[in-house]
Amino acid sequence: MKLHNYFRSSTSFRVRIALGLKGLSYDYVAYHLRKGEQRDKVYLALNAQGLVPTLETEAGDRLAQSLAIVEYLEEVYPDPPLLPAEPLARARVRGLAYAIACDLHPLNNLRVLKYLVDPLGHDAGTQADWFRHWVAVEFAAMEQRLSEEPETGRFCHGDRPGLADLCLVPQVVNGRRFDCDMTPYPTIMRIHEACMAIPAFAEAAPERQPDAEG
Amino acid sequence: MKLHNYFRSSTSFRVRIALGLKGLSYDYVAYHLRKGEQRDKVYLALNAQGLVPTLETEAGDRLAQSLAIVEYLEEVYPDPPLLPAEPLARARVRGLAYAIACDLHPLNNLRVLKYLVDPLGHDAGTQADWFRHWVAVEFAAMEQRLSEEPETGRFCHGDRPGLADLCLVPQVVNGRRFDCDMTPYPTIMRIHEACMAIPAFAEAAPERQPDAEG
User: Fold this and answer.
1) Which domain holds residue A67?
2) Does A91 contact B105 at a Cβ distance shorter than 8 Å?
3) Does ipTM top 0.95?
4) A117 close contact with B: CB closer than 8 A
């Protein structure tokens, strides 16, 4: 398999973790997002949205959208599972994952941050305030759920890392880049540290990728 | 079951369509988003994020996040299916659904549009430009995929409505409210019309709900 991606992309990071947890090897193909390489014709032929990541299977099929890729990996390579077996538990894990993937990360994506500067005319300070605002709103709700719900264990759901964790960790890493105050979220940070002690998470981190920059 | 929701919420609309397609009846509980009722203590006890919808099962379990709810319904009430059977096809449908749910809808959510006005100080015109910009970016990519990929049929994937369609239709309805020009998207609009000819879609529309306003 080939993973078309970018070291700093949170959605790429999610898929790298999933591939690692499943023990799947892949070729790493890098596109430099800040240089706009994901908008090149070559990449647009792979992914009409011009967004990373894209997973290219051995058969040449191309899958877009990080969470669609992770669900595909879960269906084709079920062991170890990234979702629990029982429907209500699966809904809890997906709900936690989507709170990040649908309500938080999209607002803080590179193209949105750029739009705040041009055409909206804001400066880097307002951009950072925007970023931290949405992290604070969503991490407060996430912290409440993770700290209060009995299903939380060493990880977001029980004692096995899964779909919610592989969304949470890249968001924490991203938040730190923007100097978000993480002290109000001790449960999130405890789970983050537990994840980063696992090689599949640590090796998927941005700074460990071949296209990493300082 | 009870659906805690709001007539105009796109994510609520998705779940109403899914319940309709599955032939499941439910009690409709309305929260007025513009009046902030989703931030009341009563609702926050049901949903820590303060976002609609929440599905409350007969057993009293509460599920958050529209797509987690739809996947739950798909697992517990598999007939008729909202996803195809084969993993690559499922990944295509989920990928189309997430292109809307993760890359488009979150940017045009009410709380984001409000933030553009306060604290960012923009007017309704800039707010509408923002809305239309993201619709144009994502609908162009979606139109390209739907018009070029052989898997597209009467609906987003083949001739049975499913997960991608129930994300697409509320987004089209929402886009029309903001006077988005839909003429560049003939395939999207053809699929939209095919969906709206189905009672489960038509009956889930905002104007058909008990809390509808003009």
Assistant:
1) 2-80
2) no
3) yes
4) no
Q: Is A98 on the interface with B (CB under 8 A)?
A: yes
Could you tell me if A106 and A178 lie in one domain? yes
pLDDT tens for chain B, 214 residues long, are 999 999 999 999 999 999 999 999 999 999 998 888 888 999 999 999 999 999 999 999 999 999 999 999 999 999 999 999 999 999 999 999 999 999 999 999 999 999 999 999 999 999 999 999 999 999 999 999 999 999 999 999 999 999 999 999 999 999 999 999 999 999 999 999 999 999 999 999 999 999 999 7
Do A75 and B69 make contact, defined as CB atoms within 8 angstroms?
no
- Residue A133 forms contact with B (CB below 8 Å): yes
* Same structural domain, B193 and B93: yes
Partners of B61 on chain A (C-beta within 8 Å) are 88
Name the minimum distance, in Å, from the CA of A198 to any CA of chain B: 27
Judgement on whether residues A65 and A30 belong to the same structural domain of the protein:
yes
Note whether residue B212 is domain-resident: no
Same domain, B94 and B130: yes
- Provide the CATH number for the domain around residue B141: 1.20.1050.10
B144 and B105 assigned to the same domain: yes
- The C-alpha of B203 sits at a distance from chain A's nearest C-alpha, in angstroms, of 25
Are residue A93 and residue A60 in the same domain, yes or no? Answer: no
DSSP chain A: -EEEE-TT-HHHHHHHHHHHHTT---EEEE--TTTTGGGSHHHHTT-TT--S-EEE-TT--EEESHHHHHHHHHHHS-SS-SS-SSHHHHHHHHHHHHHHHTTTGGGGSHHHHHHHHTTT---HHHHHHHHHHHHHHHHHHHHHHHHH-TTB-SSSSBTS--HHHHHHHHHHHHHHHTT---TT-HHHHHHHHHHHTSHHHHTTSGGGSTT---
Q: How far apart are CA B4 and CA B158, in angstroms?
A: 31
The verdict on A76 touching B (C-beta cutoff 8 Å) is yes
Q: Could you tell me which chain A residue has the CA closest to the CA of B87?
A: A72
**Domain count for chain A:** 2
The shortest C-alpha distance from A73 to chain B (Å) reads: 9
Q: Report the DSSP pairing between strands A54-56 and B2-5.
A: unpaired
Tell whether A119 and A193 lie within a shared domain.
yes
pTM: 0.97
